Fold each of these.
Amino acid sequence: MKRRNDLEYLESESISLIREVAEEFENPAILFSGGKDSLLLIHLAIRAFWPAKIPFKIVHVDTGHNFPETIEFRDWLVNQYSFDLIVGSVEDSIRRGTAAEEKGPEATRNRIQSITLLETIEKYHFDALIGGARRDEEKARAKERFFSHRNEFGEWDPKNQRPELWSIFNCKKSVGENFRVFPLNNWTEMDVWNYIQYRSIKVPSLYFAHKREVFSRHGILYAVTPFKPPLTGEKSYEAEVRFRTIGDATCTGALLSGASTVEEVIAEVARLKTTERGTRADDKVSETAMEDRKKQGYF
Amino acid sequence: MAHTQKTFDLLKVAFIGSVDDGKSTLIGRLFYDTDSIFEDQRSELESSSRRRGESKLNLALFTDGLRAEREQGITIDIAYRYFSTVRRKFIVVDCPGHFQYTRNMITGCSTVDAVVVLIDAENYARHGLMEQTKRHLAIASLLGISGFVVGINKMDLVGYDEAAYRKIEADVRAAADKVGAPELNIIPISAVDGDNVVEKSAHMPWYTDATLLSTLETLDVGVRDATAPFRLPVQRVIRGVTATNPNFRGYAGRIASGTVRVGDEIVVGGTGPCTRIKGIHTYDEPELKSASAPDSVVITLEDEIDISRGDLLAEAARSPGESDEITTRVCWLGQVPADASLTYLVKHHHRYLKAKLVGVNRKLDITTLTASDDDQALGMNEIAEIRLKLSQPIAYDRYEENRTTGSVIVIDPRTNQTVGAGLFL
């Protein structure tokens, strides 16, 4: 295959960032959501430390509302590479009473998963979490540094971010503070898919066209799941769909699509007229929904 | 949507200039006219513009994504946006114009290949060249950015007048000369209406050169020089087991400059022991013959030498300098002025050292863009030439020759804040 200078540039940048985390922090971890971006992170980390093993734990914040395919894929991956997996359970936070379940048909655990994330950070004393967020996804994420400082409450202060010059990263912090690190900041959705093809990476089946029971609400096509059943008057039907982004089943919309291979997905992404997160209900709560959640500790 | 890729050529470009010169609007216009704003982003811009009582689409909201930025109508921190045309892929960085956010502008400019400097033509008629425009020109030039484009914006507000444009053009060329900026590409534009952004303006027939987009598509920012001296800052020592080696020990890092081949003679630091390259490895190609900047690789060496994170592997024939006293240009970013009695921390690629400010040789006067040597104080956003005494000698190059081995950040150990950017002379 022809060498892709643009992808190799991004790959090299990300590898260098991931290695820096391993050296600068005592107890870092990779946040794995089950989506393609955090999967890519793991593959880049494998490359960064080869022939040694990844020196990080893998953390999954499980809302309990995941698609079964996501959990299956996670377990396959963990088993394949013998990773040390830590699961932070939103269900447990609710049971403990540190998080309150939302009520009503639009209820989602998207917002309260930040609470579980911060609890997991505290419990395991993580001082850096590597996330797969990308600047091209969303306007608040477009403002992120590579090494993003969080105070002891896990809060992001976007009005007062540290300068970040060249490729020199100031990782100094006080006790209790931590960092979120975003090695994929400069990757676009198209880059991610091109790279998946370039390096032949296996991705979850949800990203490819399949038949599924769906219903439409506020212009978003939701999968019928026990966590988000259609209301009276909302007709469900079978359709050929795929997911462009994978979050919790209660806030992730599906895309009508026949794209069943990586090549077809790449061709489709090139044609699409909406952004990747255009089907994410969690971003549409307000004009600055992502920024508001990030300030609270969301990644 | 312009996303099917026919080219793998990547240009990183920052938009800079003084407050309200229209940087965010211009980026919004550039994306809008290249069909790079998606439908959901567009409807978000429409509803947000309406909510603010604006009849036209407020294109600045495309990059001004923070709540505080939208409330105040200003850019506080840099935003990154991505688009591609058939000729190039672009990473676009929107920088704040305000004096107090200069540290964010420097952050945005420290990794780009090119800048677009915006100047408000109407404001110029009243006030001349703004101090912040000069400061941005000086900083971009100091950072060694090779592509300089100047957009004379808001031409619609000066009647698309050529004489007004020529006056600004002469003035900005003179200022750029004083700070040692490279050749300028100057373009009269109107970001609000899109004149000379993607499409040629019908209002300015006297301007016959390229639009902003085609200038950026063809801007030559110099290919990375594969013949530059090889430099590899060691980021991590990796030990493991490979198919052929049960006791693999390699030095991982991102090549900062030049090319390295198996068998090459290298030196550790400026004056350390010499050895030869035994192997060059990556996960995908365990046995490479050669590698070049900016690859991330793992190197194995012929001899057992004590090497750890923060050491520099360099071409033996063209070795770096080594010293514990460095003369460096510095942009001071801290709100508290530099303090000669304080021990700072500096980070040089992957290594932290203690440092003291020995003296200020000279400072740049932003108003006149000339150097002065009668002032030892170094306050926020000032640019000066200083002398640093380090706790250990380091192997280094001049910033002009190597951005990675020729730069440090200065950290205030009391606050952990990054308070300075140093560029070695």
Amino acid sequence: MKQSEYRDLLVTDKSKAQRILFDEYLNYVYTIAFNRLRSCGSLEDVDECVSDIFKDVFDSYEYKPNQNDDIKGFISTVALRRSAAYYHKLCKNKNSISLDDENTNAFPSNENISESAEKEEIRQTLLKLIDSLGEPDSTIIIQKYYYGRSSFEISGFVSLSPAMIRVRNSRALKKLRRLLSDNEIVI
Amino acid sequence: MNRKLDLRILENCDMKTLEVLSRKYKAVDDKEAEKIFRRIENDADYYEDVQVHNIEPYHRPVWRKVCSVALPLAAAAIVVTGGVYFNSQLENYKNTDDISETDTMSGSVENSYAAISVTDDYKGTILGISNWHIEKEDIYEYDNSVRITFIDDDTGNEFAYSEIKSGEKYAYLVDLDNDGTDEMICNHIRAVVYGENNNHAAVYRLRDGMLEAGKIINNYEHILEEHDISLSSYVDFSDEYSPEKNKFIFKSSYIDTEYELGIEDYSFSPAFLYPYYIRDNTGYLLGVKNWHISKESVTSDIENTYFINDVTGEKFVEFTGYKDKTSVFLADLENDSAPEVVCNYQWSEDQENMNNHVKIYRVNKGVLECGEFLNDLEAFEKAANIELDSCDDFTEYYNTDKNKIMLKKQGEDTEYELGIEYYHFKPVDLQDTVQTGIDTE
């Protein structure tokens, strides 16, 4: 959906417009928020963050006309910033310093560029290996070990009983470990 | 090798990885999506500064809101690359965010969600069940009371019921205990006193996959004591859910005051107790409402048992065994509130010296399936470290006390637990009893 299409619909049916936008981008926004808050926020925090992101987006489009047509770009920026704000609120990093502090420049960045690039490569390979397991095994692995969902909850994503999910998970995990080992990936 | 797979490496990742994750994997199920959208809608109502359901509104000072949003945003602005392009837009959303915010800050009512009314139009998920339907049945004609039964289409089992007057909402969905999952509140009619129903609420909720029902019947004496109320029995009062107040209203024709109750006043226990022995009149079974049991003699001491669908004439459960030595239970082997029909029966390859075995029937995603261990010995052999030559080499039986299927190798005393995961399930080929000439009397 383009911003202009959304705006047209917003005039005729605001609820419908917002619902369509929500349905189209929920997975994207939730993925961004969960990715940032996975280790320090609860699922309730992620839900709250996601709803805040959508409220920001809805309000922005309602009150500010003449915006760029790239809805996805705008939503991703709002989502990243909101998630970062939540992260700082929830995690209270002890090493953080004020941006107004005169000594700010004296602190070197913790980011190791070569390490980041290596991690990025590992992530891409890891996702490819998980994807190579095929469905529903790849979904089971991601839902269980990334999103932390139980077999019962995963049964809402794949058409299998919780018992069958446990069986498939066990087999898929063995296969994935073998693939990781073959690719010399240690995680 | 059983250590947990650690996917922390995917946390706080680059946009390319995020794109792949979001494109390939669903992050939210439909129920969660509905919950988030409702949260947005409800919060939008707060912007309009409307006092909702008697909740005391709390206005957070604007300066605090400005600080809480602006500071993290300033920090985040450095982290996010490529965001400059959208800065003008973000300036605006910051402003709208600051307009006015009203949070709930009531000690008595913490829940900020509005209840969803379950009617014929509602198609969403209930208690984690996305495929369901209702069946309506008149209770009493004189007061237009109707029984609403909620059936899980995937398992064929009843999972909740409500008793209402015609025209009333069937049930309400609301997250009363703020655990992120909606409870379902149904009304149950207990008695009619002076023409008025004494209605009692039943709260259905999921706990660790187990469906529980909360009622006040085991707890109401404390309420009487606390408020110094003199009532002699459960039928002297009603406790109905009020969606407007998001509370349970305790009232009686014998007292003038109405009292508001919360979910903490309800005591919970499993909604359905399993296992239980299945008889003809057990009720809804494997998605079949009207059915009966039929027996067919094979020899003087062996018989076949069939469960016959009264409407279609089809056999939907069948097994063989020695007369008076077979048994059938409705059991929840996985403790997931989706019970299975478990048959203790006897069988052998030569039809002589038959051993105890177990068959499991279940409805999975709307399809009737039968599971047997006989076809899949290898996985269990490895897990239990035993060798089984054939189905005549061991016995299985369902132990009701343990709610487990136990396996014993011939000539050995050791019993092994045999999980449902070792059973190989296949769709049942429903056969018409008329064609097979079985006596269904």
